[in-house]
Amino acid sequence: MRGLFTAGVLDVLMERGVTFDGVVGVSAGACFGCNYKSGQIGRVIRYNKRFARDPRYCSWKSLLTTGDLFGADFCYRELPLELDVFDAAAFAANPVEFHVVATDCATGHPVYKRLDTADETAFRWIQASASMPLVSRPVAIDGRELLDGGLSDGIPLRYFESLGYDWNLVITTRPHGYRKFPKKRMCLLKPFLRRHPAIYKALTTRHVWYNETLEYIDARVAAGAAALIAPQEPLDIARVCHDPARMQRVYDIGRAAGEAYLSRAV
User: Fold this and answer.
1) Which of 18, 25, 58, 61 is deepest in the core (most CB within 10 A)?
2) Which residues have CB under 8 Å from 147's CB, separation 6+?
3) How many angstroms separate the Cα of 178 from the Cα of each of 128, 145, 207, 212, 253?
4) What is the pTM of this model?
5) pLDDT tens sequence across 162-192
6) E strands within 137-214?
């Protein structure tokens, strides 16, 4: 739900007519960032508040009955196709490249995918990018089992630079200066991930590459090759939230950060 900060930033950018050649999203950034390519201002905060307390959207009941905390059929079929329709035509017509990142369960390595159309396969890639381990089933695509891209490349600046994007705007949901530390008692998770030892390893080593990536972002910003938008303070919201007012607050913080960035840029 920290991704609602990103949604607020993106809505401001869209309202101001700010365009980019490409966008890459990871986890919630993939679920919410796709609306930038479809040009649907306000859609993210609208449907999150509307379905905040709907057990089909996110609930322990969904986890127990379907294997997914965020109901896969509801989130990636019923919601975008029927309840708050995703504009697939606008997505396909927009020349902005949209990429997502998932993690290969067999290797623990990132898998990158460019999505040009918003069809069933594209929604499965977005689902894979946002499928948190332990509370989501792996998503099978092209012979791979995939989970959350945040396990292997949560801020894929280097990936976009490798594609030739020589200036990038990075949006993070942690304040500047934040660093990850090794999680305590991670060994307790090992039995639950015995089918996917590479995912367990990714979880236990994530802080190493994540912190190195943050240092790389700082270096690129200092060199004038990137800019960073981040919240000033930790966002008061958990990974799962059923409170529309708290969702709106985080979204509004993102909007304020987007406005502040644009005022400085001008």
Assistant:
1) 25
2) 102, 103, 105, 128, 131, 132, 133, 136, 138, 139, 196, 199
3) 26, 31, 11, 12, 18
4) 0.96
5) 999 999 999 999 999 999 999 888 888 999 9
6) 139-141, 144-148, 168-171
Indicate the SS3 state at residue 204.
helix
Q: What's the rounded Cα separation, in Å, for the pair 181 and 170?
A: 22
Nearest to residue 128, comparing CAs of 87, 120, 179?
120
HSE (CB half, 13 Å, CA atoms) of 112? Answer: 17
Name 22's bridge partners: 97
User: What DSSP element (H or E) covers 35?
Assistant: helix 28-38
DSSP 169: E
CA distance 129 to 113: 10
